[in-house]
């Protein structure tokens, strides 16, 4: 087994692990119970996708996927901000929707 | 690989239709997003899936040795995604306005435009 | 949304978003990116700013009505398409001015138009939504 | 700031001289430029601006400290994640602030969030304190002291003369 | 060559930019009109070129046919572009009298011009995906126009319009994408060969059905028309006039294009379906109109029934029938727009669009009455107005095929159309106003009178002219039908000798 | 502008129209010699040559007779109308419509092309509609106008179909060619043609069972009734039958249809005429009788029958127009048209009385009026026809009744003791007298000088137009033949009926009342139509979006499902081995399921976010970084916008009943399955990658870009992108408008 | 050599991602879960990016990876702060610190 093969195998393994991580994150997302829990889970999932980008960049030897990571790092933050704002306002309204 | 994506696309479409039929405008919006995603997947699959190699040329336009992913459906997809976003945005604004106008989002109870039949 | 941390963060993150968006726009022809993605990222920056400082301030920082920005983007896109008339070519034919490493083209101008249109559109949308009571 | 930009410019110039903007070239250029500026400090930098020469190494120290803390914290939290019985003591503590500038508070809050088991929740309206959530708050006073001596001190060194 | 094809699309967008930047001022309104005039000029030029050379094609960006996006104009496209420009100008002028400063500031003119641009783009493009894009452009502009008036009704109408049309566009998108996946091309001329050569004709028919449903929805055929009567009576009158004239016709155009150029492999199935659909469309539309008592609602339902005629022409697929469909398409746009404009004037004069709440127009606004008669009877198919020829050709085509039922339905629907038109006439014009109002054109401000009446008169004159001197138009439509049924010239103009 | 009648402009218009009509009359008359010499005057313009349609006219014998009647009576009617209603505020409009009608009618009878004929046919319907509804404030007038319009236009549409079939069968719409060419009787299309043409003719000429509209049409002002609904327009159907007689006549079907319809109409109408107390209504029914008689005669194929038809047509036009004008004058002079309220007017209105008596004499068929000759010819013609005894019986019955009616009209109002009328009776102005008197006298003159004045013209009509070898002569005394006997019988019966009119009425009234009224039937049909329409609309256009959506999706599911079953496209199934991809697919699908969560908005949007992420991961997997980036950005922005919007929106509840959920589920699952099958089928065969290869090869060489996707977007397919940016921009405009527009009150 | 380094980094990234996910699933409340997400998650992402930087090499790849890491580390705390604040509001913990002077004295929401 050459180092290259090892790398490929570990990338595959890592991808599967990240995939499982996302799936587990999804469980939290689905279970909630509070809005913050869901947002946390969503945030974790996006971060995991950044990881996927990195791993894919390795697998395909292509920098292109790193660009996705950069963009994603920026915008996932935006969605967290928006959802947090939402959560906070909802909490102030003591609106029991979620 | 296409098979899985095809099934996923079909599944998304089913879910989307179910949501769209629910009679609530907000859920219609959710359905719309799902439907767009489903159709996007369909287009992607229709362009055939080539794992890996993004359609980028090497320096000086060198073609990589392996087949690259099909660039054309990707361009179409990009267009479709952005258009879908525009439509979603409008629909969202309309939903807010409808809620302000009617005080609810039950589409079946929005009946100010029709029906009004001949009274004779 | 009155948060010191957010407003400090937003102050330089907005700049960072804009910078990155321009970067994405300009090198889009050769690696992933382009007007759309650039416009989306740039708009995201201002959206963030509006979250931190309020829509009023964001509009003021922008100086121009976002709708007008979008329309100018559309105008630029049209004009880049018309430019090829000067060279008696088909509409939307790219005209290239290649100086060593630097390549200027109407295609890039078109992409800038796309950038502005997307940028303006998203800000219009988000600001209008934010201002809705 | 001025000096930083000159330094960056020097690094670029150095790389250009070497005909290639590779990472090693740039780093080398930056270090050499830093040295050159230090030697010429009397010529170009007056008074407060000289802070740059101290701030830069302090920044590097801070970064190193932060990366260490990040890894440490992550491993700690990671252990708790998979431990059969996680050892959690969540609590919200109030941490008084010394620094007052926006950038300083921001940096501190961010770094606290990124370090083990702590999370900045909010800043007091009058900027007198941070509100920190910790999952290892067995001893709240010790926690605050730890934060102040660790992170806040190092940040202070970067920002204050 | 490609410029004369691209400019009709680009000018409206340039106008939109200009009108938006000058929004809220009189200059903005005038820019819109000026742009419409320019569009008309280019459209005339385009028709001239097409008459001169037959099918013309041009490549956008200079990329050879199947690779880039091609713009094509055959007789049908060119005529549609011209009609669009005419309607655009008429409604742009008419809008001056109706659209207030608020709508104008919200971007009415930009949306309106973009709508025209989208419609023109749809008519001229030779690329299936590009067609989708233009569909979206016109759709989204129509969304904006629909709600810009701000009435509660319009919001309700818009909810229905938007939701149903979104489904259609998604379906179209899916169809276009899948068709690419199945054939490897998006150029419509190229698709003709590719679809015919496909080994899996079952799949081709399947995709054809997707597109049929998508376009059918746009065209408002039975049973996909619900969005139309739900929304067309709600926005500004100028808006519903341009919708009535152009929007559904884009769907019909797309049906005609796709089901003559690309999907002709299984006519026994696809066109048979179209035939039944068209019959039901005609009947349900006209019956729907009979149940209404609102000026615009009646007209809206009639759009549906008239669409049935056009689809019928396509479904029969003989040269005469297709010619009839083409002619119908052209005539109906003018007539329908005009009727909505007249409805607008009537609303302005009488204060309502409910037929039972208005009246007295015949006595005090005889000019309007006379102008109503022309499009109304044209719609009903009375000679010597344009609608007669349309109906004549369709009926004759179906009789030639021995389709008795079809001809019978077509004639019956004509009769029921008369019923509705005379109902409007009797209630809005003949009957005295229930509140004793004497609605006279003189009540309008001078400028508004001109802005409203000149377009109406112009369109009425066109209706009469087409009816009285049909020969040139019929020949034109015949030529158009020939090109549709034998797309060799179309394919050659697009692809040259390059591929297939 | 046309309505400035108060200052006399309307009257001037009336006179001008009258003079114009007179000029046309003169023009027509000048053509007579040529026509009689069998040299028809022709005129043609190409109209729609590609359809074989021309705007062609000819003047032959039949046209000439009609043309003379139309223009001649028209001229008098204009004069009459000026006197009758010259002060009406809308008189200008009236003259305009009436003149338009006259022109249409002339066009109709002069047309040599079937489509030209149809054009004018329909124009007469329109003008008639406008004229019947002239008294438009009256709902009854509006209703009757609509009825006339729908019946005649409906017939018109049948006629159109018939004409088209004739055109197909005969190879063109040129009448000359159709008439002289090989007969249509042998064509396979003869049946349908006959039915359709007869439908057209019968509706226009108010033949049973379409007769009900004509009496209602009397809602129109009297000049209109006189002109349109007795002298001219209703003759259009008869004209058409005569015109097409050579091409369609002579078969058993033709003769049975015409005889039956004509006979029933004639008898029924004359019975009904007896019952009318309103003079105008009585006249309306006698018009029906005349039309029935003519129709009946046209069933024949013998010169006698046809001569009779043509002659009686002239007869009828002369006396009926005259009588209508008389009734108008009476109405004008006294304020009523009710027989019971009139009497002894002869002294106050001597000229009117004279016209009435003369015209009624013609109507009753008394010698030496032209009516006598007409009646004689009818009987002579009846003998030649199939089913002669029945025809003759019908003719006698009808004529006898007519005799009685003529008696009522001529005698009751003008003779006997004067009865007080609403107005003090006075003679009408000269404009109103000229018409009836001239026409009535005309009936006398052409009666006496029948053969010299009319013989050649009628002969020309028979030989030139109806293609008979000869015409019957027009003689006051044709010898003591069977016709003469029948005439005597008619008179006897007529006198008896007149004298016993009250008893007769008592006899027939119960019978008639039990007959179904077609007029009421008409209302029921219209009501039925409205109910049907309302029902259909209620079913389809419910206003419930869910129903619409369900219909649409059901159509999609059906269309795709059935086509799949029918076409059986090939599919290929090949599952991937990548665990990562499987995981992605699973959590994406799970996200979609989460979005179904009914209560939590945020759970739903998070679910959709998950789907977005999953799809993006698939894009990454498929080597589409640009798309993945865009997808993620768009998903994020959607979530952001939704988070903003959700603050302004309510929560969600599921309201569907389980049954509905079931139905929706079936549709949703079917559609989803179809989509899957289509994708599998599309991907079953390899893709033609030539376009992509072109892009790959030329992206750098020709477009100077390494990122092919971007090059496609901004260069190869820049036009798509152009449209796309407009979409996004306009979406924002629309959203801005919808959010910022202030609410507008009211509808 | 770089391959092995890459492999290690990748596996670490995967492992941390998994751990973060488990943390999020297992931790008792929103605030504690956030600790897993904002730290471990960011680390996992950063490690994967680092792996890419190491494997591909070159300035542009490295700089992109570093920029991505920088963005990740810069944005994560801000997000966590906002979210934490919201969660605190949510869970009813409203320390005096959180109440603005302007809000004081007003009745609770």
UniProtKB/TrEMBL annotation, chain A:
InterPro entries: MrpF/PhaF-like. Its main location: membrane. Coiled coil: none annotated. It is found in: Cell membrane. The chain crosses the membrane at residues 6-27, 39-58, 64-84. Keywords: Antiport, Cell membrane, Ion transport, Membrane, Transmembrane, Transmembrane helix, Transport. It comes from the Bacteria. It is a multi-pass membrane protein. Belongs to the CPA3 antiporters (TC 2.A.63) subunit F family. PANTHER family: NA(+)/H(+) ANTIPORTER SUBUNIT F1 (PTHR34702), NA(+)_H(+) ANTIPORTER SUBUNIT F (PTHR34702:SF1). This is Cation:proton antiporter. It comes from Paracoccus aerius.
UniProtKB/TrEMBL annotation, chain C:
It is a multi-pass membrane protein. The keyword Membrane applies. This is Na(+)/H(+) antiporter subunit B. The chain crosses the membrane at residues 12-29, 35-55, 67-87, 107-129. Residues 5-124 form the Na+/H+ antiporter MnhB subunit-related protein domain. It is found in: Cell membrane. Signal peptide: none annotated. The keyword Cell membrane applies. Pfam families: MnhB. Belongs to the CPA3 antiporters (TC 2.A.63) subunit B family. InterPro entries: CPA3_antiporter_subunitB, MnhB. The lineage of its organism: Bacteria, Pseudomonadati, Pseudomonadota, Alphaproteobacteria, Rhodobacterales. It comes from Paracoccus aerius.
UniProtKB/TrEMBL annotation, chain E:
The chain crosses the membrane at residues 6-23, 30-51, 71-94, 106-125, 131-149, 161-183, 203-228, 240-267, 273-291, 298-320, 326-345, 365-384, 404-426, 447-469. Signal peptide: none annotated. It is a multi-pass membrane protein. It is found in: Cell membrane; Membrane. The keyword Transmembrane applies. Keywords: Cell membrane, Membrane, Transmembrane, Transmembrane helix. Its main location: membrane. Belongs to the CPA3 antiporters (TC 2.A.63) subunit D family. Residues 126-414 form the NADH:quinone oxidoreductase/Mrp antiporter transmembrane domain. This is Na+/H+ antiporter subunit D. It holds the Pfam family Proton_antipo_M. NDH-1 shuttles electrons from NADH, via FMN and iron-sulfur (Fe-S) centers, to quinones in the respiratory chain. The immediate electron acceptor for the enzyme in this species is believed to be ubiquinone. Couples the redox reaction to proton translocation (for every two electrons transferred, four hydrogen ions are translocated across the cytoplasmic membrane), and thus conserves the redox energy in a proton gradient. It comes from Paracoccus aerius.
UniProtKB/TrEMBL annotation, chain F:
Residues 50-94 form the NADH-Ubiquinone oxidoreductase (complex I) chain 5 N-terminal domain. It is found in: Cell membrane; Membrane. Residues 660-745 form the MrpA C-terminal/MbhE domain. Residues 111-393 form the NADH:quinone oxidoreductase/Mrp antiporter transmembrane domain. It holds the Pfam family Proton_antipo_M. It is a multi-pass membrane protein. Residues 587-650 form the MrpA C-terminal/MbhD domain. The chain crosses the membrane at residues 12-35, 55-79, 91-111, 117-134, 146-169, 189-214, 251-273, 282-302, 308-330, 351-370, 390-411, 432-454, 474-499, 545-567, 579-596, 603-624, 630-650, 662-684, 721-739. Keywords: Antiport, Cell membrane, Ion transport, Membrane, Transmembrane, Transmembrane helix, Transport. NDH-1 shuttles electrons from NADH, via FMN and iron-sulfur (Fe-S) centers, to quinones in the respiratory chain. The immediate electron acceptor for the enzyme in this species is believed to be ubiquinone. Couples the redox reaction to proton translocation (for every two electrons transferred, four hydrogen ions are translocated across the cytoplasmic membrane), and thus conserves the redox energy in a proton gradient. This is DUF4040 domain-containing protein. It comes from Paracoccus aerius.
């Amino acid at each position: 087994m050459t180092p290259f093969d090892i790398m490929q195998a570990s990338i595959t393994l890592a991808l599967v692990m990240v995939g499982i991580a996302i799936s587990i994150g999804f469980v939290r997302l689905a279970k909630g119970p509070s809005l913050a829990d869901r947002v946390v889970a969503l945030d974790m999932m996006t971060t995991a996708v950044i990881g996927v980008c990195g791993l894919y960049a390795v697998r395909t030897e292509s920098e292109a996927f790193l660009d996705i990571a950069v963009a994603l790092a920026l915008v996932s933050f935006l969605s967290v901000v928006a959802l947090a704002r939402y959560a906070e306002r909802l909490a102030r309204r003591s609106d029991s929707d979620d | 690989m296409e098979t899985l994506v095809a099934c996923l696309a079909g599944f998304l479409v089913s879910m989307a239709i179910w949501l769209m039929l629910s009679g609530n405008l907000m859920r219609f919006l959710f359905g719309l997003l799902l439907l767009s995603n489903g159709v996007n997947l369909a287009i992607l699959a229709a362009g055939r899936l080539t794992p890996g190699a993004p359609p980028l040329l090497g320096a000086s336009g060198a073609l990589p040795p392996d087949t690259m992913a099909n660039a054309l459906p990707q361009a179409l997809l990009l267009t479709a995604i952005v258009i879908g976003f525009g439509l979603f945005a409008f629909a969202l604004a309309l939903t807010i306005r409808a809620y302000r106008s009617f005080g609810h989002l039950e589409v079946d109870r929005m009946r100010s435009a029709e029906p009004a039949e001949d009274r004779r | 949304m009155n948060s010191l941390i957010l407003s400090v963060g937003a102050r330089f993150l907005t700049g960072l978003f804009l910078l990155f968006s321009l970067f994405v726009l300009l090198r889009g022809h050769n690696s992933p990116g382009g007007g759309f993605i650039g416009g989306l990222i740039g708009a995201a920056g201002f959206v963030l700013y509006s979250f931190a400082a309020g829509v009023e301030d964001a509009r003021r920082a922008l100086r121009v009505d976002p709708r007008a920005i979008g329309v100018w983007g559309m105008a630029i896109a049209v004009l880049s398409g018309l430019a090829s008339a000067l060279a008696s070519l088909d509409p939307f034919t790219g005209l290239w001015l290649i100086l060593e490493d630097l390549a200027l083209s109407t295609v890039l101008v078109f992409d800038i138009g796309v950038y502005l249109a997307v940028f303006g559109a998203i800000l219009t949308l988000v600001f209008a939504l934010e201002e809705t009571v | 700031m001025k000096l930083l930009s000159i330094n960056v410019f020097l690094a670029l110039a150095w790389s250009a001289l070497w005909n290639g903007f590779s990472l090693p070239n740039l780093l080398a250029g930056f270090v050499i430029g830093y040295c050159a500026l230090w030697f010429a400090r009397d010529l170009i930098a007056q008074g407060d601006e000289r802070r740059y020469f101290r701030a830069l190494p302090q920044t590097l120290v801070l970064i190193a400290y932060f990366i260490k803390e990040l890894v440490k914290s992550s491993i700690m939290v990671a252990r708790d994640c998979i431990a059969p019985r996680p050892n959690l003591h969540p609590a919200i503590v109030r941490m008084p602030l010394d620094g007052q500038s926006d950038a300083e508070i921001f940096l501190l809050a961010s770094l606290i969030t990124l370090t083990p088991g702590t999370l900045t929740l909010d800043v007091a309206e009058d900027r007198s304190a941070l509100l920190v959530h910790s999952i290892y708050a067995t001893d709240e006073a010790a926690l605050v002291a730890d934060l102040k001596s660790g992170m806040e001190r190092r940040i202070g060194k970067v920002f204050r003369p | 060559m490609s410029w004369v094809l691209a400019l009709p699309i680009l000018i409206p967008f340039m106008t939109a930019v200009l009108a938006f930047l000058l929004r809220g001022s009189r200059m903005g309104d005038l820019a819109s009109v000026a742009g419409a005039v320019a569009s008309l000029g280019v459209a005339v030029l385009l028709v001239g070129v097409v008459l001169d050379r037959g099918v013309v094609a041009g490549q956008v960006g200079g990329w050879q046919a199947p690779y880039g996006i091609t713009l094509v104009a055959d007789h049908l496209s060119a005529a549609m572009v011209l009609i669009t420009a005419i309607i655009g100008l008429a409604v742009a002028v008419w809008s001056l009298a109706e659209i207030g400063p608020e709508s104008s500031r919200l971007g009415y003119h930009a949306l309106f011009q973009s709508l025209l641009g989208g419609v023109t783009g749809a008519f001229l493009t030779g690329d299936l995906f590009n067609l989708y894009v233009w569909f979206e452009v016109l759709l989204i502009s129509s969304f904006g126009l629909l709600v810009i008036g701000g009435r509660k009704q319009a919001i309700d109408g818009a909810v229905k319009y938007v939701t149903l049309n979104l489904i259609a566009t998604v379906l179209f998108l899916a169809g276009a994408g899948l068709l690419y996946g199945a054939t490897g091309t998006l150029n419509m001329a190229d698709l003709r060969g590719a679809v015919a050569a496909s080994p899996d004709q079952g799949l081709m028919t399947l995709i054809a059905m997707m597109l049929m449903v998508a376009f059918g929805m746009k065209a408002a055929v039975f049973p996909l028309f619900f969005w139309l009567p739900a929304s067309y009576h709600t926005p500004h009158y100028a808006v519903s006039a341009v919708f009535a004239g152009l929007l559904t016709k884009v769907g019909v155009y797309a049906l005609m294009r796709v089901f003559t150029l690309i999907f002709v492999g299984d006519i026994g199935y696809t066109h048979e379906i179209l035939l039944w659909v068209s019959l039901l469309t005609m009947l349900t539309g006209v019956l729907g109109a009979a149940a209404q008592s609102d000026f615009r609602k009646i007209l809206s339902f009639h759009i549906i029934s008239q669409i049935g005629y056009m689809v019928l022409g396509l479904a029969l697929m003989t040269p005469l029938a297709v010619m009839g469909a083409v002619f119908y398409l052209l005539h109906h746009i003018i007539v329908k727009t005009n009727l909505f404009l007249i409805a607008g004037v009537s609303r302005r004069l009488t204060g309502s669009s409910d037929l039972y709440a208005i009246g007295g127009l015949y006595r005090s606004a005889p000019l309007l009455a006379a102008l109503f008669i022309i499009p109304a009877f044209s719609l009903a198919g009375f000679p010597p107005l344009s609608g007669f020829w349309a109906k004549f050709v369709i009926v004759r085509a179906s009789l030639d095929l021995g389709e008795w039922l079809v001809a019978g339905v077509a004639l019956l629907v004509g009769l029921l159309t008369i019923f509705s038109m005379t109902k409007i006439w009797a209630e809005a014009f003949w009957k005295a106003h229930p509140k004793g109002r004497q609605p006279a054109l003189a009540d309008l401000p001078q400028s508004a009178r001109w802005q409203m009446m000149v377009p109406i008169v112009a369109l009425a004159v066109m209706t009469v002219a087409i009816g009285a001197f049909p020969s040139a138009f019929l020949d034109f439509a015949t030529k158009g039908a020939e090109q549709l049924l034998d797309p060799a010239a179309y394919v050659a103009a697009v692809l040259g000798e390059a591929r297939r | 502008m046309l309505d400035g009648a108060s200052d006399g402009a309307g009257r001037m218009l009336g006179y001008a129209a009258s003079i114009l009509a007179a000029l046309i009359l003169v023009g027509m008359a000048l053509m007579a010699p040529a026509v009689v010499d069998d040299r028809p005057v022709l005129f043609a313009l190409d109209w729609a040559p590609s359809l074989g349609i021309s705007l062609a006219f000819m003047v032959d014998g039949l046209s000439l007779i009609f043309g003379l009647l139309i223009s001649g009576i028209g001229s008098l009617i204009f004069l009459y109308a000026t006197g009758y209603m010259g002060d009406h505020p809308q008189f200008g409009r009236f003259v305009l419509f009436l003149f338009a009608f006259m022109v249409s009618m002339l066009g109709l009878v002069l047309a040599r092309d079937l489509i030209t004929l149809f054009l004018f046919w329909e124009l007469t319907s329109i003008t008639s509609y406008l004229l019947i509804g002239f008294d438009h404030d009256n709902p009854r007038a509006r209703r009757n106008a609509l009825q006339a319009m729908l019946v005649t236009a409906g017939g018109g549409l049948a006629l159109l179909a018939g004409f088209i079939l004739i055109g197909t069968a005969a190879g063109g719409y040129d009448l000359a060619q159709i008439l002289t060419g090989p007969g249509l009787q042998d064509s396979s299309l003869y049946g349908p043609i006959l039915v359709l043409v007869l439908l057209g003719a019968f509706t226009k000429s108010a033949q049973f069972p379409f007769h009900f509209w004509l009496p209602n049409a009397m809602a129109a002002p009297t000049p209109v009734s006189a002109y349109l609904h007795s002298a001219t327009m209703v003759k259009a159907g008869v004209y058409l039958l005569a015109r097409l007689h050579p091409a369609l006549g002579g078969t058993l079907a033709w003769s049975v249809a015409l005889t039956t319809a004509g006979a029933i109409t004639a008898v029924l109408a004359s019975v009904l005429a007896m019952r009318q107390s309103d003079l105008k209504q009585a006249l309306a029914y006698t018009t029906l009788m005349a039309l029935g008689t003519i129709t009946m005669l046209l069933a024949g194929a013998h010169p006698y029958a046809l001569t009779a038809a043509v002659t009686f047509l002239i007869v009828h036009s002369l006396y009926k127009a005259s009588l209508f004008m008389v009734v108008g004058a009476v109405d004008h002079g006294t304020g009523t048209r009710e027989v019971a309220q009139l009497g002894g007017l002869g002294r106050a209105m001597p000229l009117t009385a004279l016209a009435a008596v003369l015209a009624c004499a013609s109507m009753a068929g008394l010698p030496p009026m032209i009516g006598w000759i007409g009646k004689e010819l009818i009987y002579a013609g009846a003998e030649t026809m199939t089913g002669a005894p029945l025809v003759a019986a019908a003719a006698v019955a009808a004529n006898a009744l007519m005799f009685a009616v003529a008696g009522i009209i001529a005698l009751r109002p003008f003779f006997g003791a004067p009865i007080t009328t609403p107005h003090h009776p006075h003679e009408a102005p000269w404009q109103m007298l000229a018409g009836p008197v001239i026409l009535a006298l005309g009936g006398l003159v052409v009666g006496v000088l029948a053969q010299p004045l009319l013989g050649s013209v009628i002969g020309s009509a028979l030989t030139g137009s109806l293609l008979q070898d000869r015409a019957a002569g027009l003689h006051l005394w044709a010898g003591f033949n069977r016709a003469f006997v029948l005439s005597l019988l008619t008179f006897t019966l007529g006198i008896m009926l007149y004298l016993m009119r009250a008893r007769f009425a008592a006899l027939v009234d119960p019978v008639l009342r039990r007959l179904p009224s077609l007029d009421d039937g008409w209302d029921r049909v219209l009501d039925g139509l409205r109910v049907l329409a309302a029902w259909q609309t209620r079913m389809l256009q419910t206003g419930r979006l869910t129903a619409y959506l369900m219909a649409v999706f059901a159509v999609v599911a059906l269309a795709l499902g059935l086509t799949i079953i029918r076409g059986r496209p090939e599919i290929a199934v090949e599952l991937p081995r990548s665990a990562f991809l499987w995981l992605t697919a699973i959590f994406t699908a799970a996200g979609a399921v989460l979005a179904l969560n009914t209560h939590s908005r945020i759970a739903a949007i998070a679910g959709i976010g998950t789907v977005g992420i999953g799809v993006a991961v698939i894009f990454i997997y498929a080597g589409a970084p640009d798309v993945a980036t865009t997808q993620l950005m768009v998903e994020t922005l959607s979530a952001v916008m939704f988070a903003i919007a959700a603050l302004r929106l309510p929560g969600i509840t599921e309201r569907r009943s389980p049954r509905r959920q079931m139905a929706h589920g079936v549709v949703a699952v079917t559609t989803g399955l179809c989509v899957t099958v289509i994708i599998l089928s599309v991907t079953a065969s390899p893709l033609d990658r030539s376009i992509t290869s072109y892009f790959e090869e030329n992206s750098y060489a020709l477009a100077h870009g390494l990122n092919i996707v971007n090059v496609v977007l901004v260069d190869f397919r820049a036009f798509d992108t152009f449209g796309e940016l407009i979409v996004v921009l306009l979406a924002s405009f629309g959203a801005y408008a919808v959010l910022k527009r202030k609410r507008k009150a009211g509808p | 050599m770089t391959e092995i380094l890459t492999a290690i980094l990748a596996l670490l990234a995967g492992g941390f991602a998994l751990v973060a996910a488990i943390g999020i699933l297992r931790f008792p409340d929103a605030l504690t879960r956030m600790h897993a997400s904002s730290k471990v998650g960011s680390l996992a992402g950063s490690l994967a990016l680092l792996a890419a930087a190491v494997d591909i090499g070159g300035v542009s790849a490295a700089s992109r990876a570093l920029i991505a890491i920088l963005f990740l580390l810069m944005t994560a705390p801000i997000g966590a702060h906002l979210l934490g604040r919201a969660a605190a509001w949510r869970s009813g913990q409203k320390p005096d610190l959180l109440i603005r002077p302007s809000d004081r004295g007003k009745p609770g929401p």
